[in-house]
């Protein structure tokens, strides 16, 4: 059985500078930087493993543009084009070149969806195909919502729960390329380039759980963000060991008893309505997708289910749910 801290470490799995594995990690990665007239001093925007760097170096200059590489500092400056549309076009052409040449397995899950890569002023530096974003180690953004339904005191006693609500927990479709068959948060999805976080949530709530738009807009409560850096493992599909820093906008929604999440787009196999204790049991068994486990644990902390009295590692868990990601983007100012 896994502890809550074990689960957090599975999601926030990139070594910290004081970890013994940190030096080994940095020796096998390049720092991806951006330089331009606006930023003559390079700014760090991502981290790429050696095998991605080697593949990037092999892409014809006519496709990607020039690379500036410093092997001593292990930095690479890529996509130097003057404007965002030109940079986005070069990134798209590079990813398409890899896809056509079957360079990376992760690109077999091509989404035709763009993720943004930001500069220090939260301006768009370039867009990148969603499935390829992990190859560059840039920050990606998403929304996660936990929906719950209140119980009467009689229902609570009958359920044996110490809490007066149950959580709606979906099981991911077993045919999904990533984390097939694992448990998820009620609503979750990536934020496309140019999309507002809350509008993304409203869209995902309809697509994944058939939740009425009016209900979502009028009753959803924002609950801040979580941030972590994930080293992908085989369950994610595609290449393992690439860095995936993420920032998730978190929301809670209490559902009336007559509203039930329903399958719509095939991303979900079924929904369970579970007590907090049932959710915790499934967490301990490792049944949740890693970042969904982190969001569920954050929910339990915020709602007073996990406290210093019953969780010895609470402070480290809270810190790792809000990891500092030293890359530019809205996560630096979001609350």
Characterization of the model:
With 335 residues, this protein is of the alpha+beta class. The chain folds into 2 domains: 4-13 and 140-332, Nucleoside Triphosphate Pyrophosphohydrolase; 22-136, Transcription Regulator spoIIAA. Helix content is 31%, strand content 25%. The protein has helices at 4-11, 22-27, 50-58, 61-64, 84-100, 133-136, 153-159, 197-209, 213-219, 276-284, 290-302, 314-320, and strands spanning 29-34, 43-49, 68-70, 75-77, 114-118, 124-129, 140-150, 165-172, 187-190, 221-231, 243-254, 268-275. The strands form 3 sheets. Strands 7, 8, 9, 10, 11 and 12 form a 6-stranded mixed sheet that branches. Strands 2-1-4-3 form a 4-stranded mixed sheet. Strands 5-6 form a two-stranded antiparallel ribbon. The longest helix has 17 residues, at 84-100. The model has no long low-confidence stretch (mean pLDDT 95).
């Amino acid at each position: 059985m896994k502890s809550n801290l074990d689960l957090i470490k599975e999601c926030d799995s990139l070594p910290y500078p004081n970890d013994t594995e940190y030096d080994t990690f940095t020796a096998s990665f390049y720092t991806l930087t951006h330089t331009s007239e606006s930023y003559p001093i390079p700014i760090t925007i991502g981290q790429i493993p050696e095998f991605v760097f080697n593949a990037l170096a092999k892409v014809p200059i006519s496709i990607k543009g020039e690379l500036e590489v410093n092997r001593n500092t292990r930095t690479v400056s890529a996509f130097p084009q003057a404007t965002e549309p030109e940079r986005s076009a070069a990134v798209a052409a590079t990813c398409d070149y890899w896809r056509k040449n079957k360079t990376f397995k992760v690109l077999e899950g091509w989404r035709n969806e763009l993720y943004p890569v930001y500069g220090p002023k939260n301006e768009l530096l370039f867009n990148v195909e969603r499935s390829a974003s992990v190859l560059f180690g840039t920050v990606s953004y998403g929304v996660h919502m936990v929906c719950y339904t209140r119980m009467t005191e009689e229902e609570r006693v009958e359920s044996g729960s110490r809490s007066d609500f149950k959580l709606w927990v979906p099981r991911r479709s077993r045919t999904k390329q990533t984390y097939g068959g694992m448990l998820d948060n009620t609503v979750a999805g990536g934020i496309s380039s140019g999309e507002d976080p809350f509008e993304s949530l409203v869209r995902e709530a309809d697509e994944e759980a058939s939740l009425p738009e009016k209900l979502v807009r009028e009753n959803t409560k924002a609950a801040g963000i979580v941030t972590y850096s994930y080293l992908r493992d085989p369950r994610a599909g595609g290449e393992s060991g690439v860095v995936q820093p993420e920032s998730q906008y978190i929301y809670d929604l209490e559902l009336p008893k007559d509203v039930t999440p329903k399958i719509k787009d095939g991303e979900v196999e079924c929904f369970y309505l579970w007590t907090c204790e049932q959710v915790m049991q499934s967490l301990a068994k490792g049944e949740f997708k890693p970042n969904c486990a982190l969001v569920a644990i954050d929910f339990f902390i915020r709602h007073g289910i996990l406290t210093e009295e019953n969780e010895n590692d609470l402070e480290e868990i809270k810190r790792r749910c809000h990891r500092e990601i030293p890359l530019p983007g809205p996560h630096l100012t979001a609350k």
